[in-house]
């Protein structure tokens, strides 16, 4: 009898020992979304970088003025800090892009995964770069490691513009799907009336939504063209991004008009 | 004939104010069992003490969580009361479609083709000594 009670008590204790940490974890789970956290992380790193950059400038000037071993050591230390934070700013920025890109569920999954892979590869490079900075002991190594990052930056910028373009396309596609779904729901709720005004309204909305799709397809083609023949055609990342933005501005206008027309259709019910 | 006055009214009256002794006896019985177990070995006593301690912590945490519970959206419940309009206007409740279309319009408005919130960071590309 007593053995059984001891056994039950033991089980209860074990269960509680497992449940309490789980419950605690649940309570401390972040209320912010992952994207909000990434944004805050980026802003924090950027602010730290700005401060560190000022300290680096001061230390560099002191070294150039006095040229002592102490001032050189100080300058190396301050440069190491600013280099690490510079890499962190770019890494956290890419993280924001990555999370925003992943959120675009309507985007072609192959394109999305491929772009995420590129972003992660660049983030991995930045991690290695930070580790290399940590190991730096002298002035020459500082300059070598810094120039390694600087050589990589044009490609990182290209990647960023490409990703921004994909994000824009994904967002427009998502809004197009939402508008189309709302249109279908509205038609259902109105009991599919067969008045001429209603039918004209519906076909106008569908035309607008088709225009959004056309804009998204054109934007995708622009990126594809850039990725396949940028050197041959002399295309730049920022130029391509601007063309995509132009398509998206047109898509936004069509979406606004379509949504407005749906509201007018809903008013037919009243 | 005169009825004899009962010596102990609680024993003889049909409606007694005393609570049934079964419940108290049950608790007492559990305490006695626990005491017996605790008396048998120091290990059992330790387990009992730990068990009691854990149960009390769980109860305490449960009570504490009731006071610190947040709204499902993750935002804390507002403590400052919102001002009440002196003459509230009664407007018809928007339908589900209307709510959805308003939300959609907001989402479309928020769609920014310039992506200002994700602008490329400007960093010094000439850091050297």
Rg of chain A is 28 Å
Oligomer: heterodimer
What is the helix fraction of residues of chain B, given as a range?
Answer: 40-55%
**Outline of chain B, from the CA principal axes?**
elongated
Stretches with pLDDT under 50, minimum 5 residues of chain A: 25-31
Taking the alpha carbons of the first and last residues of chain B, their distance comes to 121 Å
Structural class of chain A: mainly alpha
What is the mean predicted local confidence, pLDDT of chain B? 69
Question: Radius of gyration of chain B, Cα only, in angstroms?
Answer: 35 Å
What number of structural domains do the residues of chain A give? Answer: 2
What's the total number of strands of chain A? Answer: 0
Mean pLDDT of chain A: 89
Largest interchain contact: A-B, 69 and 43 residues
Class per helix and strand makeup of chain B: mainly alpha
Approximate strand percentage of chain A? under 5%
Distance between the termini of chain A: 74 Å
Number of extended strands of chain B? 0
How many DSSP H or I helices of chain A?
Answer: 7
What can be said about the biggest beta sheet of chain A? none
Order of helices and strands of chain A: HHHHHHH
How is this fold's topology laid out?
The complex is a heterodimer of chains A (270) and B (129).
Chain A: H1 2-28, H2 34-66, H3 69-102, H4 109-135, H5 139-189, H6 196-233, H7 237-269
Chain B: H1 9-12, H2 21-40, H3 42-68, H4 96-110
Helix pairs in contact in B: 2-3
